[in-house]
């Protein structure tokens, strides 16, 4: 496809140059059309970004930094598609990025200063082609938040190039970035940082289990009625990401264990006796890099595990040589991809892998990607629409897929308020080589005095969950 990028003269925001590189990598012919000079960045925002650089000692490139684009073709003649990166002057039929209904570049910053992620849309004419709801991993840092939103803007626009027309676009009036809003944001961020240090505030995760309930948990009111049993608290580590397996008369919970002394996750096992009483956690898999989310399943008479190894930029498959204590690396399924919480399912003869993916600037919470393979060991191929969903509220996997009344369901993390704030139970409405769609049927908050939960799994006898509690002075503030 012949694509014309309409941008302002002079150095460009880095994200626009990266968008052009992405489009070329997808096989499009890209040419530039440079119009009016660049508009200055709002003074209040520019000052805030400079102060953040001093306070947080941030180094390295960011996506708002202005750089000279590499030499490229100047647009001449007709184009199959025009993408407006200038904010005006590209014509009504151009594809453009809109944040909270406004095409103004300041709209993204306004949302971040309000403490929320913006709603992004790729709009062409009066039609919305694609939408995204990016996550903000640290709402107290504007630079980081801008990077995370703009990386998803690149994903959104690149994916919208071939997208069919969707719903109607509803514009909103622009909002300027004011000095008052920037000052309020900085004051709140500094106050939170000081209080966290003075009060020694933190948080810790733990895992719990209870007898399996009927059906799937679509009723938030019933969700917290049956109590979970929690492992004893350990001030030296946390436990999270539980998966549960019934094996030879034993119930085994596999989970992430993160000792605070090392800061590197390992996979541990907890065995429940016949009455559901736990033994101590014991490490069963350790690598030179962080491990978590031990997705465990049976296939072909063996027990398999795919722990998250995004720190190594791999997706790895292990076979149990002696369950649950000994694991052997069977295959590296995917390389050079930062994949979070890989979850696999065999569907109509094809293996599907669900995970979040991210680049150097984006969040790992909000972009769902799919991979398929004819065999568990591969070869695994990315879905052409990746990421198929950008949504902090329902993208990141939170456990194995569920089959219920003929349907296929995902348990996903709701990361709008924070990482792992709650769970979203999602019915898969479409899953094929051209697209993906899901509907959120229920949102489940943790209860029990916790402030978040991000994994739910079950076996024939038990269901398991993790939850996070605030700590103060090294002690759990509310144990639920």
From TrEMBL:
Domain Glucosamine inositolphosphorylceramide transferase 1 N-terminal, by residue range, is 235-437
- Which parts of the chain span the membrane according to its record? none
Q: Which Pfam family, an example, fits this chain?
A: GINT1_N
- What's the domain of life for this entry? Bacteria
Q: What is this protein called?
A: Glucosamine inositolphosphorylceramide transferase 1 N-terminal domain-containing protein
